[in-house]
Structure formats: C-alpha cells, structure tokens
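I am still getting used to backbone structure tokens and would like to learn alongside you. Please make up or recall a protein chain and show it to me in full. Would you write everything just below, so we can both look at the same thing?
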Amino acid sequence: MTSMTGYAYREKTGNDLSVSAEIRGCNSRYLEISISLPPWLSNLEAKVREQIASCCGRGKVECYIRVREHNAPIAISVNKNAAKAYYDAVNNLAEELGMGGKCSLDALLGMEGVLETEKNRDDERYWQEIQPVFSQALQAFCIEREREGNHTKDDILGNLNIIETSVKNVASFAPSIEQTIKENIKSRFTELLGNQVDENRILAETASMLLKYTISEEISRLVSHIGEFRAEAERNTTCGESSRAKPGKKCDFLSQEINREINTIGSKSAVIEVSGEVVKMKEALENIREQLRNVE
C-alpha cells in the first residue's frame, strides 16, 4: 500500500545558483497537484507536473521550488525616450520657477524607467540545475509515502483479522440460530394450543423463518470479500506504478460491501452472541475505513 501522506525537502547550493525543492502530500479523492515556481520559470511547470503525476495516482500534492541567483548575467539598457521626457520636464519646471541649472545625469538615471535591467535566463539551463534536486525530493517523497503506507497496511490488516475472527465465530453460531428459531416457534405453538402441537407445522414454520433469518449467504459473501480485500492490501505496489494498480479505491469499495453484509447479519441476528460479534466487526471496519481515506 502507498499512503497519500508524505513530505520531502532537498536543496543544493552552488556558486551561481541555490535550488531547493519541497514536496508535501495529503489525502484527497482525486489527484490534485499544486506547483509554486519563480514567475520567470513558469514554463517549467509542465515538466514538474508530469513527473509528479507519474508517481502519484491520488492525493493532494504541493510542490515548492525556490531558486536564488548569486551571479546572474544582467543586460542593462537605457530608455532614451523616458530619459528625454524626464529631462525636458525637469528643465521646464526649473525655468518656470526661475531656478538655474540643468537636470544632472545622476538624477536622471535614478528616475523610474530610465534604466531597464533584464537577466539573461535560459529555461533549459535552469532545468538542468533544478531537475536533480527535484528528482531527489520526489524520490524521498515516494519513499516516505511507502513507509507510511506500510504502517497503514499493518493497522488495516490487524482490524481485518478481527473481522475474520468474528465471521468464524458467527458461522459457529449458525446451528444454534436454527435451534433458537425452532424453540421459539414451538413455545408459541404450545402456548396457544397446549399439547396438541403438530410437529410438521413447527418444521414448516421453522423452514419459513430460516429463509428470512438464515445468515449463511451473508457469511459466504463476507469470507469472499475479506479474501479479496486482503489480496488487494497485500499487493506489493510502489510509488511510480500505474494508478490502476493501487489498492486504495478497490479496498474502499470492498469495505462498503463488507459493511453491507455485516449490517444484514445484524438485522437478522437471532442470538445475542451474534449481535456481540457484529458490534466488533463494525468497530473494526470503521477503523479500516478511516485508514483507507489516506491510502492511494
């Protein structure tokens, strides 16, 4: 099993560039990927998203990639139109106010929009620096999800064992259910008719009641669902495999089927021991369903 919960952080510091990658995961019904990149590297989002999607089938995944430049090459240009407009405006104002002098070059260069700077950035060059750090973080993220998934699987299988034991106990009570129904019917007949009780009539009524209250079919289906659930939970999937191979969704469906059979057994229960086992099964199943919410 693979959990949808995980966290990883990796960073690398070089002479010209520092890169860090942080990935967080939590449960979600579908795959939701949120990526945060520096605005000037937004073109790389598709590559990051593709790699995350190849590893994750479900869950909410947040990825933060931060880049800090130390010695980035910068191109500087002068906006001559803006400079001339500032120069003319300042000189005209000085003339109208009767102030001597001209606008200095230092003052002109400090005005907004006169000097324009642009860093020379090549997306592919940055990706070559980002990709190794991001890949390491993604690999660590997958390992963490698998580790958490193994703990979740152990807990789920422990609760499944409880259900399995209760099913066996319920099955052992099946003969006593028939006897209890027969005795109840005979007691009512005796109460109404005294000693003039027709044994064949009791058998016919018993057979009719058994059709309504027998739980053998429910037990058979429960055993089948539990076996299939265990096979799905034990499947050795790893982060990066196809989402179709993930057991989370199928186990969730099987838990619904198991719940349906347990409820039916509870509604048909004719002996108190069976009701007690039904309570145990429902409690264990609720724990399973709670854990499945975080399984991919």
The mean pLDDT is 84. Residues 145-292 form one domain.
